[in-house]
Amino acid sequence: MTNTKNNKTLIYILNGSPRKNWNTAKMCESFKKGAQDTGINAKIINLYDLNYKGCYSCFACKVKNGKSCGKCAYPDELKEILEKVSNSEGLVFASPVYFGELTAQMRAFMERLLFPVYVYDKAGSKIPPKKLETAIIYTMNVKPDRFNDWFVGKDKSGPLGLFEKWIEMTYEKPEILCAYDTLQFSDYGKYVADVWDVEEKENTTGKNSSKSLSPHTMPAQKWLRKLKQN
After folding, report:
1. pLDDT tens column, 205-227
2. pLDDT digits (tens, 9 = 90+) for 48-87
3. pTM to 2 decimal places
4. CA dihedral sign, ordered 169, 174, 180, 184
5. For the chain, which domains are there?
6. What angle do CA 154, 222, 117 make, to 5 degrees?
7. Burial level of 57, CB count in 10 A (0-12/13-18/19+)?
8. Which of 200, 160, 158 is nearest to 182 (CA)?
Protein backbone atom coordinates (compact mmCIF):
# COMPACT_ATOMS: atom_id res chain seq x y z
CA MET A 1 0.00 0.00 0.00
CA THR A 2 1.27 3.48 -0.87
CA ASN A 3 1.57 5.59 2.25
CA THR A 4 2.84 9.05 3.00
CA LYS A 5 5.10 9.90 5.94
CA ASN A 6 2.08 10.22 8.19
CA ASN A 7 1.03 6.68 7.16
CA LYS A 8 -2.08 7.69 5.21
CA THR A 9 -3.36 6.07 2.05
CA LEU A 10 -2.61 8.35 -0.90
CA ILE A 11 -4.96 9.15 -3.77
CA TYR A 12 -4.70 11.68 -6.58
CA ILE A 13 -7.55 13.81 -7.88
CA LEU A 14 -6.90 14.89 -11.46
CA ASN A 15 -8.63 18.14 -12.36
CA GLY A 16 -9.07 18.23 -16.13
CA SER A 17 -10.76 21.65 -16.14
CA PRO A 18 -9.02 24.87 -17.18
CA ARG A 19 -10.99 26.70 -14.46
CA LYS A 20 -9.65 26.50 -10.92
CA ASN A 21 -12.60 28.00 -9.09
CA TRP A 22 -15.67 26.68 -10.87
CA ASN A 23 -17.79 23.52 -10.89
CA THR A 24 -15.20 20.80 -11.49
CA ALA A 25 -12.60 22.41 -9.23
CA LYS A 26 -15.20 22.72 -6.44
CA MET A 27 -16.05 19.04 -6.74
CA CYS A 28 -12.35 18.17 -6.61
CA GLU A 29 -11.92 20.22 -3.45
CA SER A 30 -15.02 18.64 -1.91
CA PHE A 31 -13.83 15.15 -2.74
CA LYS A 32 -10.44 15.98 -1.25
CA LYS A 33 -12.09 17.16 1.97
CA GLY A 34 -14.22 14.02 2.13
CA ALA A 35 -11.10 11.88 1.69
CA GLN A 36 -9.21 13.75 4.38
CA ASP A 37 -12.16 13.46 6.76
CA THR A 38 -11.96 9.69 6.20
CA GLY A 39 -8.24 9.62 6.99
CA ILE A 40 -7.05 9.41 3.39
CA ASN A 41 -4.37 11.72 2.03
CA ALA A 42 -5.66 13.29 -1.21
CA LYS A 43 -3.73 15.53 -3.58
CA ILE A 44 -5.19 17.53 -6.46
CA ILE A 45 -3.27 17.87 -9.72
CA ASN A 46 -4.46 20.61 -12.07
CA LEU A 47 -3.67 19.21 -15.50
CA TYR A 48 -3.88 22.59 -17.21
CA ASP A 49 -0.91 23.74 -15.10
CA LEU A 50 1.33 21.18 -16.80
CA ASN A 51 3.07 21.48 -20.15
CA TYR A 52 2.44 18.25 -22.04
CA LYS A 53 0.70 16.74 -25.04
CA GLY A 54 -0.95 13.41 -25.81
CA CYS A 55 0.79 10.25 -27.00
CA TYR A 56 3.72 10.86 -29.39
CA SER A 57 3.60 7.32 -30.85
CA CYS A 58 7.28 6.78 -30.09
CA PHE A 59 6.43 3.22 -28.95
CA ALA A 60 9.19 3.20 -26.34
CA CYS A 61 6.58 1.68 -24.04
CA LYS A 62 6.31 -1.34 -26.34
CA VAL A 63 10.01 -2.21 -26.85
CA LYS A 64 10.80 -5.80 -25.80
CA ASN A 65 12.75 -5.76 -22.53
CA GLY A 66 13.06 -2.00 -22.88
CA LYS A 67 13.67 0.17 -19.82
CA SER A 68 10.38 1.98 -20.48
CA CYS A 69 8.29 -1.07 -21.30
CA GLY A 70 4.83 -0.55 -19.84
CA LYS A 71 5.26 3.13 -19.01
CA CYS A 72 5.42 6.41 -20.88
CA ALA A 73 8.98 7.46 -21.67
CA TYR A 74 8.42 10.91 -23.13
CA PRO A 75 10.49 13.44 -21.10
CA ASP A 76 8.12 16.29 -20.28
CA GLU A 77 6.30 17.61 -17.22
CA LEU A 78 3.86 14.70 -17.23
CA LYS A 79 6.42 11.90 -16.95
CA GLU A 80 6.99 12.21 -13.19
CA ILE A 81 3.27 12.73 -12.56
CA LEU A 82 2.41 9.50 -14.39
CA GLU A 83 4.87 7.61 -12.21
CA LYS A 84 3.36 9.02 -9.03
CA VAL A 85 -0.29 8.45 -9.84
CA SER A 86 0.31 4.95 -11.19
CA ASN A 87 1.75 3.88 -7.85
CA SER A 88 -0.85 5.50 -5.59
CA GLU A 89 -3.88 3.73 -4.11
CA GLY A 90 -6.58 5.49 -6.12
CA LEU A 91 -7.28 7.93 -8.93
CA VAL A 92 -10.17 10.34 -9.34
CA PHE A 93 -10.59 11.64 -12.90
CA ALA A 94 -12.48 14.96 -12.93
CA SER A 95 -13.53 16.69 -16.11
CA PRO A 96 -16.19 19.05 -17.41
CA VAL A 97 -17.97 17.65 -20.44
CA TYR A 98 -17.00 19.57 -23.61
CA PHE A 99 -18.86 18.62 -26.81
CA GLY A 100 -19.92 15.37 -25.18
CA GLU A 101 -16.37 14.36 -24.29
CA LEU A 102 -13.55 14.88 -21.80
CA THR A 103 -11.50 18.05 -22.04
CA ALA A 104 -8.53 17.88 -24.41
CA GLN A 105 -6.11 18.02 -21.50
CA MET A 106 -7.73 15.05 -19.76
CA ARG A 107 -7.88 13.11 -23.03
CA ALA A 108 -4.15 13.71 -23.60
CA PHE A 109 -3.45 12.57 -20.04
CA MET A 110 -5.44 9.38 -20.56
CA GLU A 111 -3.48 8.52 -23.72
CA ARG A 112 -0.21 8.83 -21.83
CA LEU A 113 -1.50 6.90 -18.79
CA LEU A 114 -3.29 4.00 -20.46
CA PHE A 115 -1.62 3.25 -23.80
CA PRO A 116 1.72 2.12 -22.29
CA VAL A 117 0.10 -0.58 -20.12
CA TYR A 118 -1.72 -2.24 -23.04
CA VAL A 119 0.45 -5.01 -24.47
CA TYR A 120 0.33 -5.82 -28.18
CA ASP A 121 -0.02 -9.55 -27.57
CA LYS A 122 -2.77 -11.94 -28.62
CA ALA A 123 -4.04 -12.21 -25.05
CA GLY A 124 -4.66 -8.46 -24.86
CA SER A 125 -2.59 -8.23 -21.68
CA LYS A 126 -2.57 -5.14 -19.50
CA ILE A 127 0.33 -4.39 -17.17
CA PRO A 128 -0.48 -1.39 -14.95
CA PRO A 129 1.81 -1.18 -11.88
CA LYS A 130 -1.25 -1.48 -9.62
CA LYS A 131 -4.96 -2.28 -9.97
CA LEU A 132 -6.07 1.12 -8.67
CA GLU A 133 -9.43 2.09 -7.22
CA THR A 134 -10.98 4.74 -9.47
CA ALA A 135 -13.72 7.34 -9.53
CA ILE A 136 -14.89 9.77 -12.21
CA ILE A 137 -16.33 13.25 -11.63
CA TYR A 138 -18.28 14.84 -14.49
CA THR A 139 -19.69 18.36 -14.58
CA MET A 140 -21.86 19.53 -17.46
CA ASN A 141 -24.45 22.05 -18.60
CA VAL A 142 -26.90 19.37 -19.78
CA LYS A 143 -29.49 17.30 -17.96
CA PRO A 144 -29.18 13.59 -17.05
CA ASP A 145 -31.15 12.28 -20.05
CA ARG A 146 -28.88 13.99 -22.58
CA PHE A 147 -25.78 12.91 -20.67
CA ASN A 148 -26.83 9.27 -20.47
CA ASP A 149 -28.35 8.94 -23.95
CA TRP A 150 -25.78 10.88 -25.97
CA PHE A 151 -22.53 10.99 -24.05
CA VAL A 152 -22.46 7.68 -22.16
CA GLY A 153 -24.67 5.86 -24.65
CA LYS A 154 -26.43 2.52 -24.72
CA ASP A 155 -24.08 -0.21 -23.44
CA LYS A 156 -21.50 2.56 -22.95
CA SER A 157 -21.19 3.12 -26.68
CA GLY A 158 -20.88 6.91 -26.39
CA PRO A 159 -17.57 8.77 -25.99
CA LEU A 160 -17.77 8.93 -22.20
CA GLY A 161 -19.04 5.37 -22.00
CA LEU A 162 -15.96 4.21 -23.91
CA PHE A 163 -13.75 6.21 -21.55
CA GLU A 164 -15.36 4.44 -18.59
CA LYS A 165 -14.79 1.08 -20.29
CA TRP A 166 -11.08 1.80 -20.73
CA ILE A 167 -10.79 2.71 -17.06
CA GLU A 168 -12.61 -0.43 -15.95
CA MET A 169 -10.52 -2.68 -18.21
CA THR A 170 -7.31 -1.23 -16.76
CA TYR A 171 -8.18 -0.60 -13.10
CA GLU A 172 -11.11 -1.21 -10.77
CA LYS A 173 -14.60 -0.24 -11.92
CA PRO A 174 -15.00 3.53 -11.46
CA GLU A 175 -17.53 5.15 -9.17
CA ILE A 176 -19.35 7.88 -11.12
CA LEU A 177 -20.28 11.27 -9.64
CA CYS A 178 -22.12 13.87 -11.76
CA ALA A 179 -23.16 17.49 -11.48
CA TYR A 180 -25.80 18.19 -14.15
CA ASP A 181 -27.10 21.39 -15.76
CA THR A 182 -24.50 23.56 -14.03
CA LEU A 183 -23.92 27.29 -14.42
CA GLN A 184 -21.20 28.19 -16.91
CA PHE A 185 -20.99 31.88 -15.99
CA SER A 186 -21.68 33.99 -12.91
CA ASP A 187 -23.51 36.63 -15.00
CA TYR A 188 -25.54 35.28 -17.94
CA GLY A 189 -26.48 38.84 -18.90
CA LYS A 190 -22.99 39.38 -20.31
CA TYR A 191 -23.23 36.55 -22.84
CA VAL A 192 -25.37 35.36 -25.73
CA ALA A 193 -26.90 32.44 -23.86
CA ASP A 194 -30.67 32.77 -24.01
CA VAL A 195 -30.99 29.10 -24.97
CA TRP A 196 -30.60 28.31 -21.26
CA ASP A 197 -33.15 28.73 -18.50
CA VAL A 198 -30.93 30.57 -16.03
CA GLU A 199 -33.38 30.34 -13.13
CA GLU A 200 -33.65 26.59 -13.59
CA LYS A 201 -29.87 26.33 -13.76
CA GLU A 202 -29.50 28.33 -10.57
CA ASN A 203 -31.92 26.00 -8.80
CA THR A 204 -30.04 22.97 -10.13
CA THR A 205 -26.71 24.45 -9.09
CA GLY A 206 -28.09 24.94 -5.61
CA LYS A 207 -28.96 21.26 -5.49
CA ASN A 208 -25.54 20.37 -6.89
CA SER A 209 -23.87 22.47 -4.23
CA SER A 210 -25.67 20.71 -1.43
CA LYS A 211 -25.61 17.19 -2.91
CA SER A 212 -23.40 16.42 -5.91
CA LEU A 213 -20.68 18.84 -4.81
CA SER A 214 -20.68 17.49 -1.27
CA PRO A 215 -17.88 15.20 -0.08
CA HIS A 216 -20.50 13.18 1.79
CA THR A 217 -22.63 11.95 -1.12
CA MET A 218 -23.37 8.23 -0.97
CA PRO A 219 -21.20 7.31 -4.03
CA ALA A 220 -18.23 9.24 -2.64
CA GLN A 221 -18.65 7.75 0.84
CA LYS A 222 -18.93 4.25 -0.60
CA TRP A 223 -15.78 4.67 -2.68
CA LEU A 224 -13.76 6.13 0.19
CA ARG A 225 -14.85 3.41 2.62
CA LYS A 226 -13.85 0.73 0.11
CA LEU A 227 -10.45 2.35 -0.39
CA LYS A 228 -9.91 2.67 3.35
CA GLN A 229 -10.63 -1.03 3.88
CA ASN A 230 -8.16 -2.24 1.25
Report:
1. 655 544 445 544 556 666 676 67
2. 999 999 999 999 999 998 899 999 999 999 999 999 999 9
3. 0.88
4. negative
5. 10-229 (3.40.50.360)
6. 60
7. exposed
8. 200
